[in-house]
Amino acid sequence: MHLALPTPAVARLNGLSAPLRGALWMCGAVAAFAVMINLVRHLTLTFDPLQVVFFRNAFGLIAMLPWLTRGGLGGLRTRRIGVHLARAAVGMVAMVLWFTTLSLMPLAEATALSFTAPMFTSVLAVLFLGEVMRARRWSAIGIAFLGGLVIIRPGAQAIEPVALLAVATSLTWAGGTILVKMMARTETAGAIVTWQTLLLTPLSLIPALFVWVAPDLGQLLWLGLLGVAGSIGHLCMARALASADATVVVPFDYLRLPLVALIAFLAFGETPDVWTWIGGGIIAASGIYLAHRESRVGSVTPPTAGSPAAQV
Questions:
Q1: Distances (CA, A) of 95 to 40, 49, 55, 168, 308
Q2: Beta carbons of 29 and 310 less than 8 angstroms apart
Q3: Distance CA 169, CA 181 (A)
Q4: Nearest by Cα to 255 from 58, 111, 92, 128
Q5: 181: left (phi > 0), else alpha (psi -120 to 50), else beta?
Q6: Is residue 308 within 8 Å of residue 105, measured between CB atoms?
Q7: Cβ proximity of 104 and 268 under 8 Å
Q8: Residue 308 near residue 169, CB atoms below 8 Å
Q9: pLDDT 10s per residue in the chain (312 long)?
Q10: Single pTM value for the model
Q11: 211, 68 Cβ separation under 8 angstroms
Q12: CB < 8 Å & 24+ apart, contacts of 273-281
């Protein structure tokens, strides 16, 4: 997907080396997604997550319209509309789960658990796509699983249902990623993005109507900022992955955890415990290693693609 940002800053970035350019684009994506995560928490203090999901998609669609119109009707050509609907439905369910998680769980903890999504994607790719994983990749996934256990700490305390909701979110996003990989065999990237963008807004409107609360002008501005932040995050991540190898840019994605924690501390007074940092660090280390392995075997789906924050 190519989105244009016609600014002098982009022109200057294009003059930098590919690894540095990719790293800077990924840092931009991290910042946008960190802001978006905290905006979800702020907005779900007033609105039901179902309604926030709708406005995220509606304003995100508006932000994407210039790109969609440039693509023309060619982006709508498809022979698999049923699979596009299934992908959009899975995406909406995952977004509802994710926004609900963010409304209930400390944001740093939720973010750390979201890093398990690429691990689920790798496992599902073996089960449904016939991809081969050898001992090193299985070891990385096992280490990530241990990192998740460090955060949740079963046995040391009762497992909170919302923690399981965060894990379910990652698993659902992984399922969506597998659908994208299946569609990529016959569908263009433009068709996948276009149909996803067009279908999510009407699909998310239906459940939102049951919990609808009319927003005032100030709240609409916050909701609009949520949609814009998400679109900017997607744009920056796409440019990062187009500029440099995944092994270069993926490590910077894990900066999302400290940035989310910092904003959550300033905005909501949240302070993550030491186990969140330890578990998040373990998951990040295994994710970086997995990205290196995926790059060496030529995986077509970047490891960051499974991340909930990167998909909303």
A1: 11, 9, 12, 11, 8
A2: yes
A3: 19
A4: 111
A5: alpha
A6: no
A7: no
A8: yes
A9: 444 455 566 666 666 677 788 889 889 999 999 999 999 999 999 999 999 999 999 998 888 787 777 766 666 777 778 888 998 999 999 999 999 999 999 999 999 999 888 888 888 888 888 877 778 778 888 888 888 888 887 655 556 788 889 999 999 999 988 888 888 778 776 677 778 888 999 999 999 999 999 999 999 999 999 999 988 888 888 788 778 777 778 788 889 999 999 999 999 999 998 989 999 999 888 888 877 766 666 554 555 555 665 567
A10: 0.87
A11: no
A12: 275/150, 275/151, 275/153, 276/106, 276/108, 276/109, 276/112, 276/151, 278/147, 278/150, 279/112, 279/147, 279/148, 279/149, 279/150, 279/151, 280/108, 280/111, 280/112, 280/115, 280/147, 280/151, 280/254, 281/147
Length of the chain: 312
> In the structure encoding, which two tokens stand for residue 203, read together?
């699909």
> Which amino acid does the sequence have at 27?
C
